[in-house]
Amino acid sequence: MKNYYLLIVSLITFNLTMAQTDFFPVYDGIFDGTVYAQTFTFPTGAQAWAGFANNNTSIYPLSYPNGGQVSFKATVAVDAEVYFRFEANPYPDVDPAIVTANVLLLASNPAETVYTVDIPADASNTYNSALMYVVTRDVEVSMLETKITQNASTASVDDLTANSVKMYPNPAKGVVNFTSASNADLDVAVYDLLGKEVLRANAVQSQLNISSLNPGMYFVNMTQGTTVSTKKLVVR
After folding, report:
1. Is the dihedral of CA 85, 88, 89, 91 positive or negative?
2. Which of 7, 10, 15, 213 has the most CB within a 10 Å radius?
3. Domains in the chain, ordered, with CATH?
4. Long-range contacts of residues 13-18, Cβ cutoff 8 Å, at least 24 apart
5. Which residues of 134-169 are buried (b: 16+ CB within 10 A; e: fewer)?
6. Residue 141 near residue 38, CB atoms below 8 Å
7. What is the C-alpha to C-alpha distance for residues 211 and 10, in angstroms, rounded to an integer?
8. 83-109 confidence digits (pLDDT tens)
9. Are 134 and 82 in contact (CB under 8 A)?
């Protein structure tokens, strides 16, 4: 019987380990005018498409049949936005490509706040180019411990961690619900596709009234302690 329980524990540990795959990019490849000097800067004068390329080629190929996330620690002196893009191959053979939502980095957040953003699911393609873009010009973005997570078909480890936040339903109409295993306050900010804040609520318990929002796509920033997660929300 003792061996039986040891087997069960081993299987559970194995399943949790296999529930995700983590990759660690190094975004120090500059192109078309960006500047990297331990911080990332998109200066005035750089091309509109200028960004930062991953130089850790050992992470390729990447695939997201069940979606994924990018997580990182960031510090900024001025509010800024970043996003991530995955392309089939380095330029010029970039298609198909997938792009994350913009992540809003707040100067008011503590240093090295943890941010996460979802990678959309794509069951058909693999990617051999990972890029990061700073949207806001002339702001130095300090970014550490960047991790790309590839979800597996089993329950996501993100769903099992103490600090995870679930948002549902999606699409939503009227209200959207939040659940978390943590007792920390949940602050929620909703942004439209232009990056304008359209709704904010602090210390959300379990539900947010979104009846004031017009139908469409929005980005939802959820802050709990020092962890910030950004997810897409479709309002019907």
Report:
1. negative
2. 213
3. 21-153 (2.60.120.430), 161-235 (2.60.40.3080)
4. 15/154, 16/157, 16/160, 18/152, 18/154
5. bbbeebbbebeebebbbbbeeebbbeeeeebbebee
6. no
7. 47
8. 999 999 999 999 999 999 999 999 999
9. yes
